[in-house]
Amino acid sequence: MRVVAGSAKSLKLKTIEGMETRPTQDRIKETLFNMIQYDIPGSTFLDLFSGSGGIGIEALSRGAKEAYFVEKAKPALRCIRENLRYTKLDKKAQVLATDVNSAIRQLETKNVTFDHIFMDPPYKKGFEEEVLSIIDRSSICTEDTVVIVESSLDTEIPDFEKLKVIRVKEYKTNKHTFLMKTVED
Hints:
Layout: H1 26-36, E1 44-48, H2 54-61, E2 66-71, H3 74-87, E3 93-97, H4 100-109, E4 114-119, H5 127-137, E5 141-152, E6 163-170, E7 174-181
Parallel strand pairs: 1-2, 1-4, 2-3, 4-5
Antiparallel strand pairs: 5-7, 6-7
């Protein structure tokens, strides 16, 4: 796994041994960032279920002002921190060593909002709908926030009270679902 573009372009990132995490393949990461590339510079990025941190690091490399990484597994946390130091992007990063629900509550109390929220939870465990329902009600997500969910092809991402699916990009083995909050009149 490597950084595709930006200030850390071509640097190889460490990954975690075993099957606990599935780093997003470089070509899928490149496709994703090609779709959002003009919105990344100067943005604030949230990477939930960060794994090795590859998505948030890609956002920082491409000019995001700040990225938050949420991960609770200790081996993954070490990997994220090592990758941030190696790419020299650690000064723009906040690593939250906790579960996603607790992290969202912490960020709400700090009045942090995000331009992009990316999540790649373990597949087939129902985390997508659970976390999206929290984000739907959360102040960390505004009408300008793009929420991106990486999931298996057979995972259905529904509309929520405010968060609505605006786009789905399918690949051979997985997909990205994009959601945004509807503007209330």
